[in-house]
């Protein structure tokens, strides 16, 4: 089974700012591109991120009048260091980091630390918008046939809105939870309903 990677889901890096980019320019970019945060780069490497929350939290009259520093530029506004993702990460890994750190977007860097893209929560949600037929095919071909070496005709796999129903009979009882867990790990699966029977109780 091949899980969708960050590289498959990310938006290639097109919008970023420098340390000296002004508050107003950052606000204009967020509005123009319909994004909630933008990476701050130095020599092509992300050093921080400025989000809408950063702008709202740190924008004060004093900051606006400061002489090109502090809260009037990206360097003073950004959350640093930048929390980044790697292109080889799975969608699950990226989602876990976002959840743990309470952020909505992650800059994606290559092996040398250079910015190559950005992945957002909305990008990750695309995993769960897979067509039911695509999910069904992956379960039949990758889970049942290649991984478990079962005949696809031995089980019935129904997928409706990402919910998988498994029915039929497997040879051993111990195969039931294994089959369910593997199906749950397929990208786009929301839930698995187990209606499997077994021929021999080997537990």
Polypeptide structure, described:
This protein is of the alpha+beta class and 203 residues long. The protein folds into two domains: 6-127, CBS-domain (Roll); 130-200, no CATH class. The chain has helices at 6-9, 23-33, 52-58, 61-65, 74-77, 91-101, 121-125, 132-147, 175-184; strands at residues 11-12, 37-42, 45-51, 105-109, 115-120, 155-160, 163-172, 191-200. The strands form three sheets. The protein has a three-stranded antiparallel beta sheet with strand order 1-5-4. The protein has a three-stranded mixed beta sheet with strand order 6-7-8, with helices on one face. The protein has a two-stranded antiparallel sheet with strand order 2-3. Strand 4 (105-109) and strand 5 form a beta hairpin. It is elongated and about 70 Å long.
Average pLDDT rating: 89
CATH fold title of the largest domain: CBS-domain
Radius of gyration: 23 Å
Spatial strand sequence of the major β-sheet: 1-5-4
The general outline is elongated
Which sequence of SSEs, written as H and E, runs from N to C? HEHEEHHHHEEHHEEHE
Count of separate DSSP helical elements: 9
The CATH superfamily of the largest domain bears the name CBS-domain
**Main sheet specs:** 3 strands, antiparallel
What are the segments in which pLDDT stays under 50 over at least 5 consecutive residues? 62-69
Distance between the termini: 27 Å
